[in-house]
Write a structure and sequence with these properties.
The protein is mainly alpha-helical. It contains nine helices and no strands. The longest helix has 30 residues.
Length: 180
C-alpha cells in the first residue's frame, strides 16, 4: 500500500499485459499513486507519461517526460519517447534535436560496451582507458570516468605493479564467480 515501487510495478504490469481500457485506467491510477509516494521518480513519471501519450494527452505527457529527463538526462529511451511527444505537440525542431541526442547517446553506449570488452581483454592499454574516460564523461557517468582516469594514473606510475594487482583481482573474481 505505501510502497512506491510496488505501485509502479503493478502499473507497469497492468499497462503491458493484456491492456484493456479498465487495465490501463488502473495502471494510470497505480502509477499516479507511485508518484504521490515518490514524487519525481523518473520511472513512474515516464510510465505515466507513456500512458497519457497513448491516450492523446500529449501536453501532460510531455510535462512528465521532461520531469523524468530532469532526473535521468542521459536515458536514450526516455529521450526517444520525448522526441515522439514533441512531434505530436507540433514541435518538429525540438523533436529532431531530442531524437538526435538519443541516437548519440545510444551510439556512445554501444561504443562504451565495445571499449569495455576490449579493456577487459587488454587491461594495460592506456589508450582504451583514455577513450573510456572521455566517453563516460561525455555520457554523464562521472564516477566511471574518474575510475578510468585513476586506472590510467596507476598504469602510468607503475605498469608492472598495476598489472599484478589487476591479475590478482581478475583471479579472485573468477574464483568467486566459479564458487571456489
Amino acid at each position: 500500500p505505501g510502497d512506491a515501487l510496488a505501485h509502479y510495478l503493478l502499473g507497469l504490469i497492468l499497462r503491458d499485459t493484456d491492456p484493456t481500457v479498465a487495465r490501463v485506467a488502473e495502471a494510470e491510477a497505480q502509477t499516479r499513486e507511485s508518484l504521490r509516494l515518490s514524487p519525481h521518480n523518473p520511472l513512474a513519471s515516464a510510465q505515466l507519461g507513456q500512458i497519457l501519450l497513448d491516450a492523446g494527452r500529449t501536453d501532460a505527457a510531455v510535462a512528465l517526460f521532461e520531469d523524468a529527463r530532469a532526473h535521468t538526462p542521459d536515458d536514450p529511451n526516455l529521450l526517444l519517447v520525448l522526441a515522439r511527444a514533441y512531434g505530436r505537440q507540433g514541435k518538429p525542431l525540438r523533436a529532431s534535436q531530442t531524437a538526435a541526442r538519443a541516437r548519440s547517446l545510444l551510439a556512445d553506449q554501444q561504443r562504451a560496451a565495445v571499449l569495455t570488452d576490449a579493456a577487459r581483454k587488454q587491461p594495460l592499454d592506456i589508450g582504451l582507458h583514455r577513450q573510456l574516460a572521455v566517453l563516460y564523461a561525455r555520457t554523464g557517468k562521472p564516477e566511471q570516468a574518474r575510475r578510468e582516469e585513476d586506472t590510467i594514473r596507476l598504469l602510468q606510475a607503475d605498469p608492472k605493479g598495476t598489472a599484478r594487482q589487476m591479475g590478482a583481482f581478475s583471479d579472485s573474481l573468477q574464483n568467486a564467480l566459479a564458487g571456489r
